[in-house]
Amino acid sequence: MFGLFGPRPAQQMERFRNRYTGRSLIVHQGFTGDWLEELLKQPGGGGHFRIDSRPLPRRRPSPVEWLVQTHILPLELPQPLFLDMREDTLLVRHLTRGEHAVHPSEIAWFLEELDTRHHARLTLSGDGTAQVQYVLPVTDNEALSMLEHLGL
């Protein structure tokens, strides 16, 4: 499909990696209340790219839209999602507890433990595919580093 109407998966993956390696994204379905405003108040909160997954899929997606609709949405994790793009690995952690998004201030705690506490690890290949490894159960989304810091 992509070959006739736009870049092939390998090209989309290369473009995504060139643009987002070393960066973070928040994939969401809109923000409720003042969540986005609170995110922007956090140190570094404005530095996360944000992509709304509601209008996806698109016929001619940008590289980030392609990655989200091809590799992230099929994970069926609750949104919003925090994505940390490493060299050839994408770490994914959802930002919900129960039925609600966590307070944006918790993202800093999640980042502190992201190397070992993430819901999914996608190892990206040059051909546009990704190997998925699930790490944390979906129900586990406590910021353990925060709890340890508070002595709880």
- State the distance separating the first and last CA atoms: 52 Å
Beta-strand percentage?
Answer: 15-25%
Total beta strand runs = 8
The profile of the biggest β sheet is: 6 strands, mixed
Helical fraction: 25-40%
* Low-pLDDT windows of residues: none
Overall pLDDT, averaged? 89
Query: Could you say which structural class the secondary elements and strand pairing correspond to?
Result: alpha+beta
Q: Radius of gyration, rounded?
A: 16 Å
Lateral arrangement of strands in the main beta sheet: 2-1-3-4-7-8
How do the helices and strands follow one another from N- to C-terminus? HHEHEHEEEEHEEH
Number of helices: 6
Q: Indicate the overall shape.
A: globular
Topology (elements, then pairings):
Blueprint: H1 2-5, H2 9-20, E1 24-28, H3 35-41, E2 49-52, H4 63-72, E3 81-85, E4 89-94, E5 96-97, E6 100-101, H5 106-112, E7 120-124, E8 130-134, H6 144-150
Parallel strand pairs: 1-2
Antiparallel strand pairs: 1-3, 3-4, 4-7, 5-6, 7-8
Helix pairs in contact: 2-4
What descriptive keywords fit this protein?
two-stranded antiparallel sheet; alpha+beta; 152 residues; 8 strands; 6 helices
Report on the architecture of this protein:
With 152 residues, this protein is an alpha+beta fold. A 6-stranded mixed beta sheet has the order 2-1-3-4-7-8, with helices on one face. The N and C termini lie far apart (52 Å). The mean pLDDT is 89.
What does this entry show, briefly?
The protein is an alpha+beta fold. The chain is built from six helices and eight strands, in the order ααβαβαββββαββα. Strands 2-1-3-4-7-8 form a six-stranded mixed β-sheet, with helices on one face. A two-stranded antiparallel ribbon has the order 5-6.
